[in-house]
Amino acid sequence: MTAGLADTNNRRHAMNANENPTVDKRGDALKAQRFQMLEDIAKELSSDSLVFPTCFDAALKLRKELQNPDLPVSRIARIVALDPLIASRLTHLASSALYSPDGSPARDLQTAVQRLGVEMVRTTALGVAMGQMLRAKDMVLFSDISRSLWDHSIRAAAASRLLARKNGRINPDQAMLAGLVHDLGAFYMLYRAAQYEELRMRPETVKYLILQWHESIGVSLLDALGLPEEIVNATIDHDQPRPLPETMRTLADVVFIGNILAGTHLEWFQETADPESGQTGEVRQRFAELLPQIKSDTQEMLAAFA
Length: 306
Fold this sequence. Notes:
By secondary structure, this protein is mainly alpha-helical. It has 2 domains: 30-49 and 136-306, Hypothetical protein af1432 (Orthogonal Bundle), CATH 1.10.3210; 54-133, no CATH class. 69% of the residues lie in helices and 0% in strands. It is built from 17 helices and no strands. The longest helix is centred in the middle third of the chain and has 25 residues, at 143-167. It is globular and about 60 Å long. Mean pLDDT is 83; it is low at 1-22.
């Protein structure tokens, strides 16, 4: 009886959704668009034919160019100079309080590269590309969630960097990259959802799909993009409940706690939750001394990556 009632409700909702394109589809009415998008994403991830905006492709090519850790600074500067936007953001970041405590500006690109290091140059290129992806024409349709997701990603990157510095055994720049890309699967799903007319008109449906799939798709995506294995592994199940580690022993621990300090998925879903209750409250109390610096660093990074 209950199953029959549910089927009836689904059919009724499907009829309403077909008649009114602003109604969010559920049940059978949604399956065609949902599974088509997920199937297309699976094909892209398995065939090395990822669909990203041009700015993202350029950043990925730049990352590959910089894979050699022995490249001289002068060569790195010449490679980066080919992308004026990334070059300007690197100079801005190198002149910020994050990397210039005494306030001295980076007056040229080579100085910026020397100050930041090659790992941070690669991370900045990816961060700038993620920021630009938000400005892709189709992403405007999901501007509220994409803006919240971007702010959350930057805050998680700032928190992870500071947690790694506090830990002392984990590379802060690596932690920052892991925090920055931990929700890249959600970015990618938003961008792909914008390619489907039925989903473009139903943002709440898209949110549901992202909530269900962004973690697993994100892991496959990061792997397909060739990010280091330790970065990929650190993002696995980052939104899934687990006991808090007594001490941060791994990069995954840092990303898990950094994600909580950044608000988890509740923030970018714009869902209300008491930040001082439950596990979130416990983490915020435990790392209360870092909260002002996380806020400050987040603002610096938003300015650098925008």
